[in-house]
Amino acid sequence: MTNSESSHAFEQSKTLERLCTASEMQAMDRRAIQDIGIPGIVLMENAAHSIADWIKQHYLSENPHAKVIVCC
Prior knowledge:
The protein is mainly α. Helices cover 65% and strands 0% of the residues. The model has no long low-confidence stretch (mean pLDDT 83).
């Protein structure tokens, strides 16, 4: 991937729509953990698998030799 392509991908990422605020996400996590009984680690694992699948499907399928770094 060239620097230009990388910059374009970054610019596209800035147009993503925020689905909830941090406090709303914390409330959803708390409800899932306390009310439904899903362990926090399972929530994190599911989130990691979901973003990895999305990256593979939407990014790596078109750029199979690209390298991806995810910082959380």
